[in-house]
Every structure is written in C-alpha cells, then in structure tokens.
C-alpha cells in the first residue's frame, strides 16, 4: 500500500502541481519567507506580497539591515504582524550567527524564532530534500482518511501519531515532492467538505474511501476559547489630521491604530479619553460597525467620529498615514470612515 501511495502522489504532483513563485526556487530564504506568509493567508493573497518582499530584500542581509517599519510597511494588509517582527529578528540572528547563510540542519532551523515544526519540516524538505514531515491541517486530514484514523486530530497525541506515519512514508522518497503533493492534494482534492475522491491520485490506498467515511473523517473537535470583544473605536480628528497611537508590546505590537476602549457607549469613550488625555472631546457621528477576526479573538468595533478642539501629540494627515504601518483592523476602520465622508 505504502509504495503505491507515495509514487502515485509524487507522480501526480509532478504532473499537476500548482504554480507559485516560491516553487521556482530552492533558496531556503525564499522558502522560509513564503512559508511564514502562507501561515493564516491564502496562496493567491500571498503572491504579490512575496514578490514585493523579495524584490525589496533579495538577501537575508538586506532584510536584517532594513528598519522594522520598512518590513511592516511591506507586510501591511497581510495581518498577524508578529510574523514580520519575527522574521526581521531571525534575519539578524542568521547574519550574526551564520554569516547571512540560512542554516541547513533541522535542529538549527527549528531553533529559529517564529519557526515551528511545520515550517521547519517544510523548509528542510523543500529546500534541502530532507525526509522531514511537515504536518498541517491538510496532512492531518489526508492521513486520517487514508488510514481510517478515528482519533481527534485536534489532540496532540493524534498529531504525533500522524507525524510518525508521515516520517515512515517519506523514507526513500523525494520529500519535497511528497510534502508539496500533500499540500496540493489537501488544497484542491482532499478538501474538508466533499472531497473529490473520483479525481484523487491516492484513492486506491484510501481506507476512508473504501469504507465510505470520507465525508465523516477527520474527527476535529477543538476546544479553543474564543473571545468576543466589543470596542468603541474613535476616529478622532483635529482639522484635517487624525489621532493615532502606536501599539505597545503585545497584540499588533508597534503598529499604529485609532484609540479604542472596551466600553459600550461613545459617551463612556469620551470619559475614558478625557481621563487618559486630559482633553475634552466632542462626538460628531456614528460611522459603522466593523468586525475583525483574529485567531483567538474577534473585535467588534463600533466606530464613532469625535473632534478635538486643540491639537495634541499623535496627529497625522492622510498622507502621513499612508507611510505608517497601520493594523489591518484599523485600515478597515479608516476606509469605512473615508467612505462615509464621501
Ligand atoms: S480518496 Fe478521497 S478521502 Fe481519500 S485521500 Fe483521496 S480525496 Fe481524500
């Protein structure tokens, strides 16, 4: 069974794989950047960011010597900005510890900031052809179906079991084509809902298909506590300028955003603002409600327009804002305000 599966998947991958700019290279730096960008973001959305990023920073040294603001600017709109901060820090470490050359052992790569087991496995297999598993949701799903595994893939012990199955499957095969074949199969054929088993290159070895369980598996029961947060988000203006602040360490670190308080009314917002800034604020109008979803929290932003009657630190014109890294959530807020004012 195993031989058939690997060969069928690898042959299919060579014939039908999806074309992406990061598949035209085995440069580990490029593969690393693509894998980080692809976390939480679709392949189509990543393509222009990937091209722009590597045209601006063609080497690890170029990235390491750039300012964090420049890196954030190129990341603007991709979200999850912590990724950008980590790759910038990691590039500096690679310059200092490895002379700007991407390390080439699994242990060293896994030790780099922002690189977990999946990314380390993907870089090692794609750039260096090492037999390292790269286990993500696609692989957990495909292997559960192939082997009719009825364990919950949200649990660590199931993930470990699947990792050991893939490690065994990889032995003696081209790990780059195998791992990327699983990625493509999961994205295009062995989809979470309604898998296209009639087009599947590894249908013959699929126990879920043989037992008509492909629409049941995998079992994936998560127990993540997801927080719903409600904010009054203030577009605070003084003449043609907007009040922004730069986020402290934590969520959206260093990115600029509008002032917002976790409260239920714009009048409460006024009080909070006056307590913090010691300046009065007038309410002009309600703008819109916007939702922004992060991994473990959802922001419900109830947007209001306020005006200041005196200038304070932190005011920026629209032209200034164009050059500042704004969080994705607050870019949406700004767009909604500008649309409202038209
Ligand atoms: S036969 Fe169906 S369920 Fe099995 S691996 Fe292929 S697409 Fe997935």
From TrEMBL:
Pfam families for the chain: HHH, HhH-GPD, NUDIX_4
Keyword terms: 4Fe-4S, DNA damage, DNA repair, Glycosidase, Hydrolase, Iron, Iron-sulfur, Metal-binding
EC number: 3.2.2.31
A GO BP annotation: mismatch repair
Cofactor: [4Fe-4S] cluster
Cofactor stoichiometry and binding remark: Binds 1 [4Fe-4S] cluster.
Residue span(s) of domain HhH-GPD: 37-188
Molecular function GO labels: 4 iron, 4 sulfur cluster binding; 8-oxo-7,8-dihydroguanine DNA N-glycosylase activity; adenine/guanine mispair binding; metal ion binding; oxidized purine DNA binding; purine-specific mismatch base pair DNA N-glycosylase activity
InterPro entries given in the database record: A/G_AdeGlyc_MutY (IPR005760), DNA_glycosylase (IPR011257), Endonuclease3_FeS-loop_motif (IPR003651), Endouclease-III_FeS-bd_BS (IPR004035), HhH-GPD_domain (IPR003265), HhH_base_excis_C (IPR023170), HhH_motif (IPR000445), MIG/MutY (IPR044298)
Reaction catalysed by this enzyme: Hydrolyzes free adenine bases from 7,8-dihydro-8-oxoguanine:adenine mismatched double-stranded DNA, leaving an apurinic site
PANTHER family with a match to the protein in the record: ADENINE DNA GLYCOSYLASE
NCBIfam families hit by this protein: mutY
Family: Belongs to the Nth/MutY family.
Known role: Adenine glycosylase active on G-A mispairs. MutY also corrects error-prone DNA synthesis past GO lesions which are due to the oxidatively damaged form of guanine: 7,8-dihydro-8-oxoguanine (8-oxo-dGTP).
Protein name: Adenine DNA glycosylase
Lineage: Bacteria, Bacillati, Bacillota, Erysipelotrichia, Erysipelotrichales
């Amino acid at each position: 069974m195993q031989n058939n599966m690997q060969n069928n998947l690898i042959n299919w991958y060579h014939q039908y794989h999806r074309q992406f700019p990061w598949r035209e290279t085995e440069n580990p730096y490029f593969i690393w950047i693509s894998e980080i960008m692809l976390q939480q973001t679709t392949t189509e959305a990543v393509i222009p960011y990937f091209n722009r990023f590597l045209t601006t920073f063609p080497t690890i040294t170029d990235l390491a010597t750039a300012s964090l603001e420049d890196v954030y600017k190129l990341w603007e709109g991709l979200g999850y900005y912590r990724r950008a901060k980590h790759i910038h820090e990691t590039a500096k470490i690679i310059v200092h510890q490895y002379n700007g050359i991407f390390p080439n052992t699994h242990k060293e790569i896994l030790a780099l900031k922002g690189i977990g087991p999946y990314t380390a496995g993907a870089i090692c297999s794609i750039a260096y052809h090492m037999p390292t598993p790269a286990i993500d949701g696609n692989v957990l799903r495909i292997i559960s179906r192939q082997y009719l595994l009825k364990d919950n893939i949200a649990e660590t012990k199931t993930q470990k079991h699947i990792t050991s199955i893939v490690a065994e499957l990889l032995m003696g095969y081209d790990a780059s084509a195998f791992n990327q074949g699983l990625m493509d199969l999961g994205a295009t054929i062995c989809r979470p809902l309604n898998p296209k088993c009639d087009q599947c290159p590894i249908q013959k070895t699929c126990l879920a298909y043989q037992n008509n369980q492909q629409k049941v598996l995998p079992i994936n029961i998560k127990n993540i506590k997801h927080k719903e947060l409600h904010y009054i988000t203030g577009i605070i203006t003084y003449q043609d300028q907007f009040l922004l602040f730069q986020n402290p360490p934590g969520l959206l670190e260093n990115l600029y955003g509008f002032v917002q308080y976790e409260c239920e009314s714009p009048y409460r917002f006024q009080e909070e603002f006056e307590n913090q800034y010691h300046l009065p604020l007038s309410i002009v109008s309600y703008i819109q409600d916007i939702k922004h979803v992060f991994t473990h929290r959802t922001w419900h932003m109830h947007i209001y327009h306020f005006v200041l009657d005196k200038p304070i630190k932190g005011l920026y014109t629209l032209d200034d804002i164009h050059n500042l890294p704004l969080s994705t959530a607050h870019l949406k807020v700004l767009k909604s305000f500008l649309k409202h004012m038209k």
